[in-house]
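User: My collaborator and I are trying to settle a disagreement about how two of our proteins should look. Neither of us wants to argue from intuition anymore, so we agreed to look at predicted structures for both before our next call. Could you fold the first one, then the second, and keep them clearly separated?

Assistant: That sounds like a sensible way to settle it. I'll keep them separate. The first protein:
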Amino acid sequence: MIKLISVRNFVRVLHSPSRRDLILLVIACSKKKRSDEEIRNIYSSFIARGKDLTKDSLKLDHVVIKSYRSCIEDRHPGAVKSTQKYPAFLRYSGIFYNGVWNRGELEVWERVIRDGWKVLILSSYYGFLRVTDCINDYDLHMKEVSKECKEKLPNILKKIMEVNNSSEVYFLTSKEYVKPFKNKVSNAYRMKLYDKSGREVDGLNYYREVSTLFVSIITGITEQISGKVEYVELEKI
């Protein structure tokens, strides 16, 4: 029997400080990315306001992550583009990231950093990233990643959970992004979304709606929740 949780109750539970310390939130990268020029305009404004983009509390084991990136460089040469490196949360501009931007611009990402949220970006090229990690533009979809490289991801995630004392990980991603982790990581769940009639929200609508849910989790403001989503199901991966 499917256990559906009221989205507002779900946000209240996750936003509590005691829960925040125990969980990892995984969001997906996006195919669409901002140009260097567009990022520079945003970035300069951010720096001018005296904001620090380096104090992300999430710990990464770069030695472990390097195994994935080395595999990608070997199996997918030429995927990365010759661009400047900028923070990942500014580089990505797909449906999810635009949804977050439209609900708070830089403020939401500032709260991720300031409040100590453990947010991972699952990137087809880089593997796992903190939102503040600086990256180039690249062209590689998760479906295109070689099996050999994907097989490295579960152990990397388990190591990240270990070094951050995280007991649970929640994926706010499409089904494609959780495939490499199926039955390989304990206490890993994908957030499935449902509308008022109990129908699952999927496809592109999933990323539109989960961006709203993400903002509400980070801010704790349930009044911001709107749109189609009424319930959440935590699907065991």
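The second protein, kept apart from the first:
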Amino acid sequence: MIATRSTPSAHVRHAIAAGALAALAAACSVMTPVPADTPVLHVLDAKAGPIAAPVAKPVLVLEVGTPRAAPGFDTAAIAYVQKAYTLDYFAVHRWVEPPAQMLAPLLVRALEGTGAFRTVVRGVGGVRADVRLDTEVVRLQQSFLTRPSRVELVLRTQLVDVGSRRVVATRTIEVTRDAPTDDPEGGVVAANAAVTRALQELAAFAVAASADVVPLAVP
């Protein structure tokens, strides 16, 4: 008997070809790189360290005003400098929100953590406050003018007596932190470290400056 070799039917050949194409498409989809211009988003999520606990029962309601930003820093773009007096922005790496917007909840959390205020509220109305803290991001940039590169953070803040509409005190907080790597990711790490320190200084400032403010209504 002569052995004969069977050949796949047209239907079977079609199924095999379709399966091969599907497997190739799946492999290509896994291996396809992310487009180079896809944004890489970063956050500020710093936490202030503890400060001295108040000795008296807290009576003041503190309002945290909506932070502002100086021109050039009122954007979600991450700023850097490579030469003096020239501000640039990374093309792909960005903040999820402008830094001033991300700063607001961090300020509330840091000030609540002091235990020095009866209540800390966001400046959205509805609660009558005794004092208000206003803050401006003057500068938040990664400087490559030095090696290693470093992040420079400048915050200007003032405490206002709401009842008398009087500025109780003002302060400019300047913090620099070296970046662990000379790239945007290293700058983000250094920025969070700088914000952590700035929050601690700002909270201590608010506690000290409000010490002599008379509350509108003592509970």
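Some points you might bring to the call about the second protein. The helical segments are 10-31, 99-114, 184-209. DSSP finds three helices and nine strands in the chain.
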